[in-house]
Amino acid sequence: MEESPDPYLCLAAHLITLLSQFSMDALYGLGTMILLLFVSAMVSGSEIAYFSLTHNHISNIRKQERPTDKKILSLLERPNRLLATILITNNVINIAIIILSTFVFSALFDLGLHPVLQFLIQVAAVTFLILLFAEILPKVYAARHPVKFSAIMAGPLLMLRRLLFPLSSLLVKTTRIIDKRMEKKRPNLSMHELSHALEITSDESTSEEDKKLLRGIVRFGNIYVREIMKSRVDVVAVDKETPFSDLIKVIREAGYSRIPVYREKFDNVEGILYIKDLLPHLDKDDDFNWQELLRNAFFVPESKRINDLLKEFQEKKIHMAIVVDEYGGTAGLVTLEDILEEIVGEINDEFDMEEAIYSKIDDSTFVFEGKTLLKDFCKIIGIEDDVFDEIRGEADTLAGLILEIKQEIPFKGAKINYQHFEFEIEGVDKRRIKRIKVKIKA
Asked: Full-prediction pTM beyond 0.90?
């Protein structure tokens, strides 16, 4: 009875036979292909590494002043040329890999298949190798270790930049021409898109205060005067016929540096009284004609954007404007401080009295004054200020929002539900909603 051959010996014999059929040229081609895959991986990773360096990374590199760090900074000084060098190098290497793969596959893996089928298998295999080993893996590593990867590739990239200078210059110049042609056709980004971009580009090193400041800057050009103004019912103003002694009392109680002055009613504002102009006349009696000290009032429509108003404040060197509605009546008042607070947050000095516009009952229940601006309401409860855009209409206050929903003044105790909010009316009269309890439902 014959013994069956050892399967391991058969496999070894088969491998030896297969290797004996390989030519040295094919082996050299395979080795070169592997080397080119490695070089392609390093170049691809350097693209992510260099363009992932944050401001903090670059600041630390500047402080260390090592030779490698100087090379990194030199490359970053001309980012367009750096990117062009990386793209040219990577494409040349990938083309070389594809050409070599044709020779290597035909020599090593002659499967006797139909030429078209064999070509498709080769393309699939080469694409998989390039994507996995020359694109995905190195870029994932480079994104996690950008400084380390940048330092490794600084020297080679500087040599490649010199070597490929003519080609990269042509590519950069061509890109600039295309950019100039396309510049006029590029659509403007919306405020929502800019805010979303801010969220996804902020890293762990960005503090919450910095994020708030950046959000304020992004949204700054999309805010109208009516959204931040002090409404007319909350404005301290005086009649032009007010006796001087009574005027001093109003000024002391209000504590403001500027006060609007009107004739008969607030819709007829005639000027602004600067309190500093009264300082030399504090000892005068009621016969003093303080009306001569009035300065011209600056009027703006409530539909004006605050970025445009800020420019006008700077040009005219003023700090206050009277806001008028579409009928020419006085809607309220806006100051330079109101505008700046939209960027930097609440500004208080030692003379400001904290005005309680809300009280917090628990984590999900608040009581607000009806005059609370919707923007302030959203900031207090921590939601985006576009939540009520579908129903708010022209409303800028919480009471106005309730009126937009109900289309009438609700009675005390009425409950209005919208999305996950429950509004309960706690104070109301025949003319306005005074106080609202807000419950945030889970």
From this structure: no
